[in-house]
Backbone:
């Protein structure tokens, strides 16, 4: 009869303990399954090395890899496995033809010897943590499901009697084999998904875990130099925080008037418009105003190069480099082909929780959409992300580009219902010149203006003209003139 085990032990994998609600229940047998390349061996090594750092003896039993190969995997991550006991079953004796029996079936002899050797090694080392790599070899030796199940049950009882916490690694070579799922205390499934273009994606799913509440569903993870890092799926309801809502100016009196005062802390603002109309410039103006107030900010740039961004901002009278140099502003250039959505969500969390960022710009959501497997997932992910940022008291500015310049304009995805405020920008034609119009079509935080105004971008910054009362159809891009509204005078570099 075993004593009740209430404490948890760490897996040694950043993020996995969070997904499991605190770690693994000790003295149990767990199955870690995944296709070759998913990172099972790396996970096993991290688990044992975490125990070794706490003074716990660790044993790595390998049937499929040699000890040298295992040491090479560890070295590639900058680790040493000197503190671990490695038991290599893929020895030279297995290849000795003279050792093969003729009366008994070789697999029966080998399976019996394998399990006896493992048990003997465990009794010698007396490990607290054990990794068994891999069960596909045991399955081949057993040759039939009944013998295989009996062997696994025998190993489970043996390890349990010696108070070991065991990870059994399996490479999913037998898709229909559900015996392990019923025998194991918990099942951790690793997946590697090849993309048509860009970096492969990896995700983890906890299929079962007896006796503990865990975070279900898929969670992204990366396998890089230094091991595996997992990114728990963001659940906004778990991150509530008290803050005082406050209205802050955007740096443009005209945009402040349109928004009913400015940007409200703990809300998000969506800037929508076609390419080239100045969405990034308007968001940068809002960002600069926050920096001048002393806020810490993060800018996630998907579409534009950093050098182009700095050059254009400086030309418009908004030099961002001093704030970057002081550390008050962090600008991250994001490649959506190389970044999973879960990793991006974790970057945002780190910015807010560890670096104290209170103003965030994401430019643009179009590129972020390309990183997602489907539109419905993007909307769900953005809902959690924006709810989280709002609950943390962060002021968020989102940029969404639309297809088309003048006339009918379309969006990749409609995220307007997720936003607290929406700024709409449009090109329109007047007297043979291409001009810009801006209006606010929604605000949950304040009573906003319903007028449409001309917008100019130049060395004087962001300028908003009087209402375009003499025009009809400005938002269609093809207005008709019905009055005497004067257009703003062009300034040098106004259309840059």
Residues:
């Amino acid at each position: 009869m075993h004593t009740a085990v209430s404490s948890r032990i760490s897996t040694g994998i950043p993020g996995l303990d969070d997904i499991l609600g605190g770690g693994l229940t000790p003295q149990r047998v767990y199955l870690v399954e995944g296709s070759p390349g998913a990172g099972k061996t790396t996970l096993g090594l991290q688990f044992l090395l975490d125990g070794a750092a706490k003074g716990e003896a660790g044993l790595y039993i390998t049937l499929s890899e040699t000890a040298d190969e295992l040491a090479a995997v560890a070295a590639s991550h900058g680790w040493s496995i000197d503190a671990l006991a490695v038991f290599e079953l893929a020895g030279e004796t297995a290849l000795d033809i003279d050792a093969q029996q003729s009366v008994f079936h070789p697999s029966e002899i080998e399976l019996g010897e394998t399990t006896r050797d493992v048990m003997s090694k465990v009794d010698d080392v007396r490990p607290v943590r054990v990794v068994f790599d891999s069960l596909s070899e045991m399955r081949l030796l057993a040759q039939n499901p009944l013998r295989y199940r009996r062997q696994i049950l025998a190993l489970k009882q043996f390890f349990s009697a010696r108070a070991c916490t065991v990870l059994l690694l399996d490479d999913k070579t037998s898709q229909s084999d559900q015996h392990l799922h019923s025998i194991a205390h918990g099942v951790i499934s690793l997946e590697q998904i090849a993309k048509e273009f860009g970096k492969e994606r990896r995700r983890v799913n906890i299929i079962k875990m007896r006796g503990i509440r865990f975070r279900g569903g898929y969670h992204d993870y990366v396998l890089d130099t230094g091991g595996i890092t997992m990114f728990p799926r963001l659940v906004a309801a778990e991150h509530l925080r008290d803050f005082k809502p406050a209205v802050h100016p955007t740096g443009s009196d005209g945009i402040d008037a349109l928004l009913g005062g400015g940007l409200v802390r703990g809300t998000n603002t969506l800037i929508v418009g076609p390419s080239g109309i100045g969405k990034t410039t308007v968001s940068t103006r809002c960002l600069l105003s926050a920096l001048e107030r002393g806020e810490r900010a993060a800018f996630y740039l998907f579409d534009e190069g950093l050098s182009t961004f700095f050059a254009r901002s400086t030309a418009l009278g908004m030099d961002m480099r001093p704030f970057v140099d002081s550390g008050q502003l962090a600008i991250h250039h994001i490649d959506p082909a190389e970044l999973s959505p879960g990793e991006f969500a974790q970057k945002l969390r780190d910015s807010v929780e560890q670096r104290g960022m209170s103003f965030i710009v994401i430019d643009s959501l179009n590129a972020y959409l390309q990183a997602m497997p489907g539109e419905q997932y993007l909307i769900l992910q953005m809902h959690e992300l924006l709810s989280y940022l709002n609950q943390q008291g962060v002021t968020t500015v989102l940029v969404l580009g639309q297809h088309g310049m003048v006339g009918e304009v379309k969006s990749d995805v409609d995220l307007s219902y997720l936003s607290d405020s929406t700024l709409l920008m449009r090109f329109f034609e007047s007297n043979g010149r291409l001009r810009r119009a801006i209006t606010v079509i929604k605000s949950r935080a304040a009573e906003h203006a319903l007028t449409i105004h001309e917008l100019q971008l130049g060395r004087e910054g962001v300028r908003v003209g009087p209402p375009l009362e003499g025009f009809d159809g400005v938002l269609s891009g093809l207005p008709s003139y019905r009055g005497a509204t004067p257009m703003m005078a062009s300034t040098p570099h106004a259309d840059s």
